[in-house]
Request: fold
Amino acid sequence: MNSNNESILKKYYKKRKTETILMITVILYCTLVGIVNPDFLSFESVFDILRSLTGIAIVSMGLLMVLISGGIDVSFMAVAISSAYASITLLLYLGIDSLWLAFIFAGVIGILLGMFNGLVIHFFKLPTLIATLATQSIIHGVLTTVVGTSSITASRMPYAISKFGSALLWEIESPDDYIYGPSVFMIPLIIIIGVTWYILNKTLLGRSIYAMGSNQVSAYRAGINLLKIRLFIYSYMGMTAAIMGILSACDVRWINPITMVGEELFILAAVVIGGAKLTGGSGTVLGVILGVSIISILNNTLVFLGLTASWNNFFIGLIILISVCFSYYTQMKRKKASLNFN
Amino acid sequence: MNNRDSSRRVLISLLIIVFVVLGFCLGGEFFSVQNLQSMAFQIPEFTFLALAMAISMLSGGIDLSIVANANLGGIFGALLLTNGDLKASLGVATLCIIAVSVTLLVTSLAGMLNGILVTVFAVPPILATLGSMMFFSGIGMAITDGEGIVGFPDGFLSLGLTTLYGLPLIFVIGIIFFIVIDIIIMGTAYGKSLYLYGENSVTSMFSGIRNNKILVISYVISGFCAGMCSVIMLLRLNSARVGYGDSYLLQAILVSVLGGIDPFGGKGRIFNVLIGIVILQVLQSAFTIFGFTPYAKKLIWGTMLLMVMIIHFVSNYLGEKRRVKNLLAKE
Reply:
């Protein structure tokens, strides 16, 4: 009965503590940057940041699922670059110029590589971090030694892909004849976010993923097929990675097998800041979107504050440490209060 | 007991196979004094990283920050070593001692930070060390802007080239250090507690072990090992930079797993890790002679890591099956 008296905001805060804190942080930080450098608070820079966070946001949706299920994946960047590079190479070889086929080829390769991860982790009961660290080296190693390390430059890039990279949803003309607007990258971004949200919140599959992350044994006893769930999670991860790979190729109109790998940690950081717990069973789409926003806003705005890019890692590391300390400390307090020592 | 010995037998036979096969393939080129000595120069820095990783794995955690930590310590040491004013006022010998101590202090403190995150704040080791890895490399980047610090005094560098009876000094230090750590882990009450903690932290807590203390000490040792590695990197490379030796992280995990350290904690022997290190170094220098690209090496390390883990899983599974069968037969 007491809860009826509380305001809606307070109820929301209780239910979604992490998200509320993150949202306040984002708003405060943006205001700070806006005060120091008014140029930041323009539509132009908002669209710029949105465009730059598309890839990270998409792949972080896949990673969110992996983390909810109680695992971790560090191989997705290798999957992203491998599927994108292989798919574009295939398109060039076949002489087809189609954006759809690029996405489909890459998606299939990504799903297969993800399934490989899932199978290895499931059947040999390996710790997911070390297993995916190994598969990362294997996938990237196969790409660089078998397919090659030569880059595909803008001149050879299929036209459909370069065109997609610079297309805008609608055009806005600024006073000084400069055309800008939201990028078409918004479409895949919104689709993936919507699909992930729907799967996690409205389907049996999503509930099973949460159940598996909270307690694998109970989930198994409750009749959940762990193999099927794992295969789905890791192929979804692979697919989102592949989409990200193609989008990145569209964005910079250039692709090289030795790029991207090694950037996993930023994305992992974004998802973790967003409140997904490594111990499984928790994490929300909204939280991850906010986490991604924090990371990419920070990456893009340190320059506005007069700091060099060298400070990026420092601040991101600091934010991760603070956010994980906060969330795991409260979890531990709660567990101790209920005499759970695990 | 039996299990432990079988793991070592497998490793030693693997080592012999590797030696024999490479001896056939490469012959004299491989067993030349020059090649063996160059291996002895390369082993130490890697030994310390592997030790750091193995200790954190024994507790059931993992320390992903070792390489970043080593680089951070190296940068502090290098800043002191390249400081002309200090060199003039203190003399080279004193400066070297101070620089080395500062390096070790910085990395030990960084290890302690990891330990505090894992114990006081109950952050899972993967996340804690991942965050601190970014944080440490961030500090390094902020200090150096990503550039290398070069130009150490000659007196310092000559330490890295010193040999005792043909063996490099750093190799001897590495081996002595390894034995000391092995004794600490295998022979003291602290080591036993660490194993117990890795096996089951709740049980160890209820049997009166101070979990937090044990864990913080293990991360400090891990940080100290990273510091030793960073001193050796300073000696050998004459420079310090963020991002040096990133590929060592995968190899350190590989060597620990290869040496039979269970990533879930509480199982494995430190000495076996040394055999793993030798195998890896032998393969490494063979690949260099073969002229493999870094990518091919990465592929091979990754495949090996996966294979070793699968073999461990299968052999554990079969062993368990046999044990159950024997138990049933007894009844």
Remarks:
- The CA atoms of residues 146 and 242 of chain B lie 6 Å apart.
